[in-house]
Amino acid sequence: MSRQWWKESVVYQIYPRSFKDSNGDGIGDINGITEKLDYLKELGIDVIWLSPVYDSPNDDNGYDIRDYQAIMAEFGTMTDWDTMLDEIHKRDMKLIMDLVVNHTSDEHQWFVESRRSKDNAYRDYYIWRPGKNGQEPTNWEAAFSGSAWHYNEATDDYYLHLFSKKQPDLNWENPTLRKDVYKMMTWWLDKGIDGFRMDVINFISKDQRFPDGEPAPGKRYVSGHQHFMNGPRIHEFLQEMHREVLSNYDVMTVGEMPGATPEEAQLYTGEERNELNMVFHFEHMDIDSGPSGKWDVIPWLLKELKDILSKWQFALQNDGWNSLYWNNHDQPRVVSRFGDDGQYREKSAKMLATTLHMMKGTPFIYQGEEIGMTNVAFDHIDDYRDIETLNMYEEQLNKGHTAEELMKAIHVKSRDNARTPMQWNADEHAGFTDGSPWIKVNPNYQTINAAFALNNPDSIFHYYKKLIQLRKTHDVILYGDYHLLEADSEALFAYTRTLNRTGLLVVSNFTKEAQSFSIPDDCNIRNLLITNELELDESSNDQITLTPFATRVYTYTL
Ligand code: NOJ
Helices in 369-514 by DSSP H: which ranges? Predict the structure, then answer.
């Protein structure tokens, strides 16, 4: 397996709207990010992934782009962005930008033209179909509720939108559109960025027969997904993008891919295939979703989590590469989800971080994760801002669900759990803004904030810092083979990594009870690398007891 800088990097994701406001309008901005670069440098990260900062009417907080080559006014100017990039590079960090090319905003000039008539130059930039017996062309559902088709009066037909109706899908079958996308990507790369995170990039090739979707039992995706996830021409399009654009630069790429399997990920990331470096899969993000989808919250099982993450480790062991993440701007906070956000918040946050960061792959940290930020539970739907949450609430109320049960699911799963402002300090609005924040701050900011974390050597922040440093000094963390231990345990997540004569043993307790663990024979002589426990019970050499949510990492010689 080849050494690559992006395999040896740790990435930090910034959701700009919620990171740091520099001008008091209540909305995070680019100058706010620049102010905080020293904080990120202190943490030790290598790469920043910036969620969209392009001009947008903000139907979906910037994932609906009106102009790919302009900065959203609320976030600042292109000059601010240039300064930010310079400052990032000065600190020896890199920047990857979000590339959202499955769809644009309906206010993008291409769509404004496209919808005007059936015979204009941009008509084929989007996906248009006639209705079927006065109905939508197919039964496909949008991720943000309702049909995935929207009627357009001027042309008397429908356009496809897999997300909101203000996010029309681009038609990748059209070579002119593809060329325009590649031109835009090249323009950004020439400005000096270091790569892209590609939004739902495995949705860009649709089955051109446009069949109805089968309502799959136990499905966790919307109807129709089998006809656009990993579609017929996806590999061809990605290879073309690589040939035309990416191969000319030394950059990092990560494709967001709901519904991707490890077998598909081998094709997307195989070294000889010239597509992408790594993908974000969602299998481990689905373990608490029931048959009716993400809002159908069910208890999750540690065994399922281990099975999934291990399957991905094995599949990409020799060729291809994994991304590693617990959190992003679309997911609940991991300490609330798979840890304990009460008594064991700090300890379980460190345990989760260790379990993930010691695996093989490139770790991604989402803003606030490094200080153990938690989910939020606003009482009123009016305090929520996310389009997915708001549309679902309205649709399900109309279908007869009670506000109470919907709020319960929202508290667990809403994307706004990840979007409350970054908690910088104990001042008003957590030091995020001097104005009035666009979304309320989590009321726990007085105890959970970056200022406290920086001052406390035992904080989650300093623990992440240590994990990042270990990766820089131990090749086994980067390139070692993965072996799962105690596969059936519902309490422990244990594995080893091995590279040449070096072994790494990782044991984590996912429960509130003490657990004992038998050390495998070949690790009898070992060195403790990192732990979240203050006092270790080392009374026996081959049997250890892990206190609630404890984690330990040892190295040993093979
Ligand atoms: C995935 C992004 O992560 C999410 O935030 C967005 O709403 C959809 N793609 C649509 O762009």
Answer: 387-398, 403-413, 450-455, 460-473, 475-479
User: What is the residue extent of each domain of the chain?
Assistant: 1-53+64-98+322-376+421-473, 109-160, 480-557
Q: What are the two backbone dihedrals, phi and then psi, of residue 73, each rounded to the nearest 5 degrees?
A: -55, -40
| Ligand 1 cavity residues, CB under 6 Å | 60, 63, 100, 163, 199-200, 256, 329-330
Of the residues 256, 275, 369, 386, only one is catalytic, namely 256
CA of 28 to the centre of ligand 1 (A): 19
CATH for 1-53+64-98+322-376+421-473 is 3.20.20.80
Question: Which protein residue has the closest C-alpha to ligand 1 atom 6?
Answer: 63
Test site for ligand 1: of 63, 385, 388, most ligand atoms within 8 A of the Cβ: 63
Query: Of residues 499 and 217, which shows the higher confidence score?
Result: 499
**Whole-number pLDDT of residue 223:** 75
Answer yes or no: 199 catalytic: yes
Give residue 424 CA to ligand 1 midpoint distance, Å. Answer: 26
- Yes or no: domain 109-160 corresponds to CATH 3.40.390.10: no
CATH topology (fold) of 480-557:
Immunoglobulin-like (2.60.40)
- Per-residue model confidence as pLDDT tens digits over 41-66: 999 999 999 999 999 999 999 999 99
Q: How far, in Å, CA of 285 to CA of 289, rounded?
A: 8
Shortest-distance Cα residue to atom 11 of ligand 1: 63
Give pTM, 2 decimals: 0.97
List, for residues 74-86, the tens digit of each pLDDT value.
Answer: 999 999 999 999 9
Tell me how far CA of residue 120 lies from CA of 128, 205, 415, in angstroms. 13, 23, 38
Instruction: Quote the pLDDT of residue 215.
Output: 66
